[in-house]
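Weekly puzzle thread! Below is a chain. First person to post its structure in C-alpha cell form gets bragging rights.
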Amino acid sequence: MRAKKKLLIGMLSCIVLMTGCGANTTPEIIMPEQPMVSDVTEQPSADVPSQETSSEGSANQSSAPTTAPTDNYTIYLITMDLTDSYWKSIDDGCLAAVNEIGNITYKWTGPDAHDDALQSACIDDAVAAGADAILLAANSKDGVNASLQKADSAGCKIVYVDSSASYDCVTALSTDNTIAGKTAGETMISALQAKGITNGTIGVMGVTADTASCVARETGFRQAFEGTDFVLADTVFMQDDAGNVTSAVKDGLSQNYVGFFGTNEGTTVAIGNAVKESSAESMVVGFDTSDAVLSLVADGTIYATMQQNPTVMGHDGMSIAVQALEGTYTDKNTATDTGVTVITKDVM
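Winning reply:
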C-alpha cells in the first residue's frame, strides 16, 4: 500500500506542476490497475546533467529515508538511441535515484540508431565493463535476447524501462501501450466529431516494424476506430529518418487525410512540423512531451499528445534494481503500468 500511495502522490504532483504553469482544466489520467509492485521511494525533483555519475552517499532528496547499499554497484541505462528527449527523462529519473541511494556508479549509453545489433553491442560492453544491473529500453522483442542471456549468466540484473524484450527480467516499468494507444484514438475521434467529421482517412506513423512499444500503441489506436467510418492507412515507418514521415504526411495532406497519429516523440514532431509547414489543417495526436512536441501543441498544430511518466520509470527502475542486487526484491517478471496523461492546449 505504501508504494501505491507514493505513485499516486507522484502523479498528482505532476498535475499540480501543470496547473502552476497556467492549466485551467484537469487532464485525463489513466491510472494503473496495480500501480506498484515493490516498496520504492517516491520520485524526487532533481536535475542532474551528467550522463555518468559515481555517487558515494549523496544528499537524500526524498522525504522518505534511503539506505545506501552495502556494496558499490555499477548500473547502466541502455536506451534505443541517445537522441530522443524522452530517454533523457528516464536518465533524469535514474540520476535522481542514484543521488538518493548512493554507492552507485551509473552510466547512460545506447546506439546511435534503432538497431538490434548495435544495442546488443551496448549490452555486451556494459557486461564487459562490470555492470551489476542494466536498465534496458529494448529495441525489439527478441533481437537482443542473446546478449541479455549473456548478461544474465554473468549475474547481471535486468530491469526493463519503457520497452521490454521477451527475455526474463526482475521487473518491467512501462506505459500499457495498448491502452495508451486506444486512448489516443478515442481522443482523436472525439475531437474530429466535435468538428463534425465522422469519416475520412487517417495516417499512422511508426518507428520500426519491430519496436514493440510503438507497435502496441498502434494496435490500441486502431482498436479505437473499429466500428467507425474512418479508414486508417497502412503504417509508414520513420526508420530513423524524419524525411520518411514528412513525405508521407505531405502525400496524405494532398489526399485530404483528416488526421495523423505519431507513435513516439520523433514521429509526432515530424508530423507536426510537416503539417505546420504545409499550412494545412489536420487533426494530429501523438506521444511524449518534449519541448518540440509541447511547442506544437501550444500553437495548435498538434491537438493532443500522450504524456508518459519516463522519470518514474527511471527512478523506480533504478531503486528496484538496487533492491534486487541487495536481495530485498526477489520477484521475477513483474510489470507496472506507469500510466499516461492526455495533454492538449487547454491544459498546458
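Puzzle host: Confirmed. Bonus trivia for everyone else. The longest helix spans residues 2-20.
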